[in-house]
Write a structure and sequence with these properties.
Shape: globular
Strand order of the largest sheet: 6-7-8-3-9-10
Number of strands: 14
Order of helices and strands: EEEHEEHEHHHEHEHEEHEEEHEHH
CATH superfamily of the largest domain: P-loop containing nucleotide triphosphate hydrolases
Radius of gyration: 22 Å
Number of helices: 11
Helix content: 25-40%
Largest sheet: 6 strands, mixed
Strand content: 25-35%
Mean pLDDT: 90
Oligomer: single chain
CATH class of the largest domain: Alpha Beta
Low-confidence stretches: 292-296
Length: about 300
């Protein structure tokens, strides 16, 4: 069964494109990634799903029900964390969360306490005394306190330190193991790789493709940055799998797709001061991993 089904969803703001012909589905019980650069259309898609905005055309269903027609009914079983969270500044955290719980039936208030302990959040602090990261924690607890069947997360880790991010990922895995379906939207590829089995990739308002994360990792690029002591011999890197090669004074940049041992062998004897190997940015992945899709 598909918990989410999106079919040719399109949203224009006047003449400006928000999203165009977006289609994908999320199966019951999975953690599904939704990834793309900032401004690609992730939040617009999510807001249309939640009937916070009305699409120009296309359709979307959650739990088999039309998102616009049955929006208020559907939202009772959804936990939503927006990318930006705003609260009444004068209220205490506990008051905000108890107020949120009052919108749902039979919320166990002890769950608020247990979630606050997991996220290391002081319920007695005032909202206006909280850092951005702690306000994000309030949003996380607010989205989970009613034990939703579907959890929708839009850029959820902004403001969280690395340790708290790890606790958050563990919390989402636990909710998933307890039966919740998760739509996890992010512009950070590594976050999605940690949690998700499948991913929909959006670029410029349209879906590039839907793919299994394992397949994506097999074909992924590595980004090399090499700092040289002397002259750089660019021709030395005339090697299959090397793309986007540029020189910036004494630094060489390129992407490499293939067996990394071949590249290590090629680097033997090079007069290097430093070498950095990292995951490429999403834009770089779009430019190269998906270049076939971009060709006419």
């Amino acid at each position: 069964m598909n918990v989410i089904e999106i079919n040719q969803l399109t949203k224009y703001y006047g003449k400006h494109r928000g999203i165009e012909n977006v289609s994908f589905s999320v199966e019951e019980g999975e953690i599904f990634g939704f990834i793309g650069p900032n401004g690609a259309g992730k939040s617009t898609t999510i807001r249309a799903l939640l009937s916070l905005i009305h699409p120009t055309s296309g359709s979307a269903t959650i739990f088999g029900k039309d998102c616009i027609k049955y929006g208020s009914e559907i939202r009772r079983d959804i936990g939503y964390l927006p990318s930006e969270v705003f609260y009444y500044e004068h209220m205490k955290v506990r008051e905000v969360l108890n107020y949120s719980a009052s919108f749902y039936d039979n919320v166990d208030t002890s769950r608020i306490q247990s979630l606050a302990e997991v996220m290391d959040l002081d319920l007695n602090k005032r909202i206006d005394d909280l850092s951005y990261g702690n306000k994000k924690k309030v949003g996380i607890i607010q989205g989970l306190l009613h034990e939703p069947k579907l959890i929708i997360l839009d850029e959820p880790t902004g403001g969280l330190d690395p340790l708290m991010q790890q606790k958050f990922f563990e919390l989402i895995r636990t909710e998933n193991q307890n039966g919740a379906t998760v739509l996890f939207s992010s512009h950070i590829l590594s976050e999605v790789q940690k949690l998700c089995g499948r991913v929909a990739i959006i670029k410029d308002g349209t879906i590039v493709r839907v793919e299994n994360i394992r397949d994506m990792q097999k074909h992924n690029y590595k980004k090399f940055t090499l700092d040289y002591r002397g002259v750089i011999d660019v021709h030395h890197f005339n090697l299959e799998g090397v793309t986007n090669l540029t020189v910036d004074e004494s630094t060489l940049h390129f992407l490499f797709k293939g067996d990394i041992n071949r590249m290590v062998e090629r680097l033997q004897g090079q007069n290097l001061m430093n070498m950095l190997v990292e995951e490429p940015s999403l834009e770089e992945i779009f430019m190269h991993y998906y270049q076939k899709e971009d060709q006419p």
